[in-house]
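Hey, resending since the last one bounced:
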Amino acid sequence: MSESLTAALARPVRTVWRRLTSMRTALILLFLLAVAAVPGSLLPQRPLNPDKTNSYIAAHGSWGRFLDAVGLFDVFGSVWFAAIYLLLFISLIGCLVPRIRVHARAVARKPLPAPRNLDRLPESARFEVADEPVDYAGAARAVLGRRWRVERRDEPSGAVTLSAEKGYSRETGNLIFHVALLVALVLIAVGRLYTYQGSVIVKQGSGFCNVASQFDSWNPGRFAAEGKVSPAPFCIDKLTKFTATYTKSGEPSEFRADVVYRPDVRAKDRRTSITVNHPLRLEGDRVYLINHGFAPSITVRMPDGSVRHDTQTFIPSNPSTFFSEGAYKEQGPATGTPQDIGISAFFAPSPAFDASGRIVSASPRVDKPLLGVTVYEGDLTGNGEQQSVYSLDTSKMKQLGSAKLGIGDTKTLPNGVRVTFDGWRPTATLQVSHDPAQAYLLIAALAMVLGLIGSLGVRRRRLWLRIRPAAVTDPTDADEGESLTVVSVGGLARSDSGNFTTEFANLVERLGNAGTSVRNTDRTSRQLALEPAGGKD
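The structure tokens again:
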């Protein structure tokens, strides 16, 4: 009873395993993996650019929140992507192991013996030479060369056969491609354990060091989070200049960040430029230029008469025009009634009005920028919850007024508060990425390309020659001292059979030229008849 139950349970398991480890399933999973990766290229990804991701979600409302809920802003870290990845990994192992064994046996095995009837093969030919069968067999083998695996056999009838095969590197290339793909999957998984990524918004004139506490966003792999991976000790001391170039139509042309850096804390300063497709490489880390923005500068005269100078980074609420929003938070005296000043603001690089009369930005290019401010007074702590640096909790504050300021403009408000728009500084979003498996992934990718070229460019071919003496019915018809040998050739294409006819004809011509030509080429006058050869041919 228990054995029958075990057999009944094992049967569907074996069926599922056979289907999972079939090449068809592996190809389907590979296709699904490619399709699943498409959103990762079209949508901003939170691990790479959290600011742009948040802006996208805010701009698209409920649709953006739905995409976030299903993990499309972190595609490569989602559960469903990991499930496809794992199933593909298992499927590749299950179908590659038996294929490698079969291919190894096929490579070690000698070419198959010649069939009994070569003229029944898709391609066949027959010609005669004036050489002994043994001598011609050696000449034919030389014609085939090293590209063919050739095995000579002697038949009891006295005939000599050559069995030749080529194109095994086609399956070898196919296996190299799939093994390299499997290795790439392993390397990606291992790299995720040791990787770390950190993003930071740097104002022009400022800098940072490669320390987790100095990043605005820090995404370590498991081992990096446990401290088993130490970040490279470099510093970007200063963003000396950020340049954004646009075409006449407003399309971005070039983003360039000129920086001063040190490969380690004891090294001398060095200068370089980071562009979008040319990161700075340091100690196995790469520093990418991801995005840019603006940091407007203001001067605030507080109610107690003190003066504050503040420059805050704004985040783009419109990624195409860089209309940006942010906040300033100025602490008042620690004693007495709270007199904190909070300013909710927007920055329009090229101000314009939309159809409803609201201020927007016509372009990311800076042209007479405008800073809109709404000033509040009260307690900045609000309801006590954690706040974003880009927004303001006004639950315990009262509004003093609002204004739209150009550079140099000042707005005077109640309680002696004055706000002056001093100007702006460009910002650059830099991302530090560490992936120790990247170099090995490049090798795996090259192996995949080479394997694919081999599997597509190499053709499987089989060729057989049966070389036997000819029986001459009229001995006086044979020239003195001339031996007649009939060569039967048969060919079979294991792949790409459409081009084999021409290839076979050229090969037969070369084989015919390898032997000594017969003086009398009129076959009917010779009245040749093949020897019985045990019923062969």
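The CA atoms of residues 42 and 172 lie 36 Å apart.

Sorry for the duplicate.
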